[in-house]
Amino acid sequence: MLKRYMHKRERYFAMLNDDRVVRPFEWGLEFIGEDPDAEDPHAVLSKFSADTIANSDEYFSIPDSFEYRLQAAGRLKPELKTLTWPSAVKTPSVENNTAYATYFPHETNRKAAVIVLPHWNAKAGTYFDLCKFFNKVGMSALRLTLPYHEERMPPELTRADYLVAPNVGRSLQSIQQAVADTRAAVLWLKQQGYEKVGVVGTSIGSCVAFLAFVHDFSIDAAVFNHVSGYMAYVTWHGLSTYHVRDGFGDNIDLDELREYWLPVSPMAYMEKLAAQPPRPQRYIYTLYDLSFPVELSRDAMRALKRHKIKHSKATIPCGHYTLGEKPWVYLDGYKIIRYLHKNLK
Fold first, then answer.
1. pLDDT value for 276
2. Which domains does the chain have, with CATH numbers?
3. Which residue has the higher pLDDT, 107 or 283?
4. Are strands 98-104 and 81-86 parallel, antiparallel or unpaired?
5. H helices of 163-253, where?
6. Measured on CA atoms in the order 193, 197, 202, 203, is the torsion positive or negative?
7. Which pTM value belongs to this model?
8. Which of 140, 170, 263, 343 has the fewest beta carbons closer than 10 A?
């Protein structure tokens, strides 16, 4: 009965004011540094995927320094500070090539800070309450703007459609950029003197957080809010991404997409994570999720167990969208804040 109710609510919220656009399929080889006119894009992407996973430290690397700029967010909210810097990954969209983050410093404590990675199509101001709660328990917070969102959105978009799209190469570049921006945010916090830095990501932000966590030992603890091992599976089967699936049409099948998007999928790096010294990591998933279908979450949890990766698990009896409703949003916030406070203090 609860399952039926939650699924009904999920469908309602997913289609509320639905302005999704089905965009045309593109291989997007130019976005991964390949010849856009290659005769066999399948072969190009297959090789790129294998090579990238084998050299993922290079793929997700960042420069040693950035030109950071911290300034007041604006006259309406002078108490907020906006951090900007040139993104390490350059895209054709000029607006997207500057990274943005909103800084919530604790008044006195500079020991711990948390980077907050929002969900896909998060609006300006979302997750500010979570950042303020981190302040209340003695930690600073830095809320990152994902690629193609808010100030980074090019004029031809009304949604962040380029982050996850039926453009295979562009989606790879977008996630690579999000990981690079996250790592640059970690670097800035460390430069400010923070001893410990954590990260929490929600939905696509969870995927980005995981990739950054695996490739950056400067991240001391992490919470992954919504869990799936493969970006392709979520896109193909998820309620929120039906328009992306429609855009692929018959140009590509699921097995091919899984292979080509493997470099930006957590499952590709389970062995890499297992070989690292253990760090605190919590995985939160919901039992009635139609956007990150629960079996995909359980599959990822089985992989963690199979690789003997020490972790904390939490489940919440709601769905993807309903996690933002009361009382679930409070329970989720508690599980996030308590875990990071415990492991970063």
1. 98
2. 2-344 (3.40.50.1820)
3. 283
4. antiparallel
5. 168-191, 204-215, 231-237, 242-248
6. positive
7. 0.97
8. 343
